[in-house]
Amino acid sequence: MGSFRSLALVLLVVFVAPVAVRGWGVDGHFITCKIAQGRLSQTAVEAVNSLLPEYAKGDLASLCSWADHVKFRYHWSSPLHYIDTPDNLCTYQYRRDCKDEDGVMGRCVAGAIMNYTTQLLDYGKQTSDYNLTEALLFLSHFMGDIHQPLHVGFTSDRGGNTIDVHWFTRKAVLHHVWDDSIIETEEERFYGSNVDDLTNAIETNITNVWGDQVKAWENCSGSQKTCPTTYATEGINAACNWAYKGVTNGSVLEDDYFLSRLPIVNWRLAQGGVRLAANLNRIFG
Ligand SMILES: *[C@@H]1O[C@H](CO)[C@@H](O)[C@H](O)[C@H]1NC(C)=O
Ligand SMILES: *[C@@H]1O[C@H](CO)[C@@H](O)[C@H](O)[C@H]1NC(C)=O
Ligand SMILES: *[C@@H]1O[C@H](CO)[C@@H](O)[C@H](O)[C@H]1NC(C)=O
Ligand SMILES: *[C@@H]1O[C@H](CO)[C@@H](O)[C@H](O)[C@H]1NC(C)=O
Ligand SMILES: *[C@@H]1O[C@H](CO)[C@@H](O)[C@H](O)[C@H]1NC(C)=O
Ligand SMILES: [Zn+2]
């Protein structure tokens, strides 16, 4: 039984791990959703609970990577995880950049956030044309992705996917360093490889260190429930100022890079979680 379990685990890792090519890795999404869950209003908690499938047992974080797992089944959804902006411009414009490789407008992570936000406004109506369970899972995942700096990256290197680096001694691509490696190394070095301890540390900083910024993170003016242009603009700025900065094809990234980029990763995870909660609270009133 024990060895059967480990075999199953190995197979799971082998077949599931390579799927997460674009997007925070599993832990990044888990952290974002976990932070959000702790900040939901009572009405939002009730709506989320009623939309989540039974097996999630009310835990949104457990399904925060669902959108990565359906990329093959829902092939149309794969361009919705990121935005490609023109090389080296370091700006984001919806009309210029939010399209897929065939040029279809709105098909990027910012467009998807608007799309699934609008769908969720049907919650509580008699009928909806949409599957609101899927809308909730997509929105929760994409709010994480848009806060990963290299999800709003340059076109020709596909958000750092074609930039080869060494993460300490291991081969990696720059995109993966930002999806997973920085978070994993942080967990190993400072949190006994425990994702819950890292989540708690970020939550503590949301209150104590970033407390005076939180209102501005949540802010989304006028009648809008979500402000993806703000998130994407911050994203490409962080990509230029921190992710791409000082990196060339073949760079070896070690403590200098790790320790200076770590605060940016923690800060973007915090913003993603705070804003996911703020958006869900606005949507479900
Ligand atoms: C909007 O959501 C629908 C339903 O999931 C999907 O078919 C469509 O591709 C989505 N479009 C965007 C831009 O997110
Ligand atoms: C909505 O989507 C979920 C997840 O894909 C699926 O399990 C469920 O059957 C769908 N509900 C309907 C009514 O189609
Ligand atoms: C980096 O080098 C690899 C291997 O030589 C190459 O395939 C890749 O296109 C290069 N990436 C960039 C962004 O130049
Ligand atoms: C929390 O904030 C402190 C003080 O700025 C910082 O040293 C620490 O790395 C932060 N931890 C996380 C997880 O953000
Ligand atoms: C909220 O955002 C609007 C623009 O979207 C801005 O005018 C306003 O000053 C912001 N308020 C805060 C508290 O940041
Ligand atoms: Zn993703």
TrEMBL record:
Classification via SUPFAM superfamilies: Phospholipase C/P1 nuclease
GO BP field: DNA catabolic process
Name of the top EC class for this enzyme: hydrolase
Gene Ontology MF: a single term: RNA endonuclease activity
Pfam family, one: S1-P1_nuclease
Enzyme Commission number(s) from the entry: 3.1.30.1
Signal peptide: 1-23
InterPro entries on file: PLipase_C/P1_nuclease_dom_sf, S1/P1nuclease
UniProt keywords, alphabetically: Disulfide bond, Endonuclease, Glycoprotein, Hydrolase, Metal-binding, Nuclease, Signal
Catalytic reactions on record: Endonucleolytic cleavage to 5'-phosphomononucleotide and 5'-phosphooligonucleotide end-products
PANTHER family from the UniProt entry: ENDONUCLEASE 2 (PTHR33146:SF27), ENDONUCLEASE 4 (PTHR33146)
Family listed: Belongs to the nuclease type I family.
Record's subunit section: Monomer.
Protein name according to UniProt: Aspergillus nuclease S1
Gene name of the encoded protein: ENDO2
